[in-house]
Amino acid sequence: MTSHSWRDAYSGMSTDNIKGLVLALSSSLFIGSSFIIKKKGLKKAGVSGIRAGSGGYSYLYEPLWWVGMITMVVGEVANFAAYAFAPAILVTPLGALSIIISAVLAHIILREKLHIFGVLGCALCVVGSITIVLHAPQERAIESVAEVWDLATEPAFVLYGILVLVAVFILVVHYIPIYGQTHVMCYIGVCSLVGSLSVMSVKGLGIALKLTFSGTNQLVYPQTWAFTFFVLLCVITQMNYLNKALDTFNTAVVSPIYYVMFTSLTILASVIMFKDWDGQDPTQIITELCGFVTILSGTFLLHKTKDMVDGMLLNVLYLRSARLLKHMDEEDGMSHEGIPLRRQDSSNMRPS
Questions:
Q1: Most-buried pick from 156, 269, 312, 336 (CB within 10 A)?
Q2: Among 199, 237, 200, 206, which Cα is nearest to 224's?
Q3: Which family does it belong to (predicted)?
Q4: Model pTM?
Q5: Using the 8-state DSSP alphabet, how is residue 347 labeled?
Q6: How far from 179 is each of 90, 102, 174, CA to CA, in Å?
Q7: Mapping DSSP to helix (H, G, I), strand (E, B) and coil, where does residue 114 land?
Q8: How far are the Cα atoms of 190, 219, 256 from residue 84, in angstroms, in the given order?
């Protein structure tokens, strides 16, 4: 009896959602692995030639680097295909798993230290991803690319598109010339806003190709080519400003902020255009948002602490504990002098 009621309450994932999930996970696996393969290729090429960081291009002659590039392309193709089968609220957040795969493989293959906060960040990403997968909305049934175009031209999404274009115009014309070199949000804002439109265009094009390969030719519709044009325009703009952000600011700053903004705006765009939440109750929506926030927390933790070593982490924690104790003592009218910031050897400590 309990088993039947549970099945009635939870209908399970649709076939399309499962296909999209498998493609998204495959994409994260390929993309996460590609970073490690390319880095191995860059190191190998740097031994016999000028390193890429010094302006050299010897890596172009290194087969291992090209294996990494091909692996990344395969991952991006899988990610593209995933949007044709599953809603963006399921596919986009799972991109964080590539960070986990990259961190774990770097620990195993490149011998880069994965400290306790890194492990915690990975665990948070996994928990958040599982939460979203279990509660993601079903992909709506679409029979032609014309249906996607109708969704894209409804007043709500047209208004969203206009607001995005106005915001991008203001950022590019007014803010970037003045604050572009000092405020990371200028470049990231353009990348994320345009990126949300590019994912919707990718989804439209992906659905058209999926229907074409299944026997219903969508290439005869002008909407297919319109989505293709928007994909190219948005991706070129997105990559241009992302490269500027990476060239100007630290990657450890750019990556988590870009992931948070891009994913948030993509989910918002998908909810407006495809009405992902229309068939869900508030509990499912809140659970999905909690899963998303959990992934964001794990991603932030991984990036924020990835360059720290265990000794540094212990010193930071010890320093903060010392400050807290000092603050508590001052409130009590007491003071403790000489609290050490580093651990002292017992041989150097004098008995009181």
A1: 269
A2: 206
A3: Belongs to the NIPA (TC 2.A.7) family.
A4: 0.74
A5: G
A6: 34, 33, 9
A7: coil
A8: 25, 15, 26
- Residues 296 and 271: their CA atoms lie apart, in Å, by 19
Three-state DSSP at 233 gives: helix
Token pair, residue 166, equals 């106005």
CB 262 within 8 A of CB 195: yes
Amino acid at 247: D
Tokens 């993309």 identify what position?
31
Residue recorded with tokens 């990718």: 202
Amino acid letter at 60?
A: L
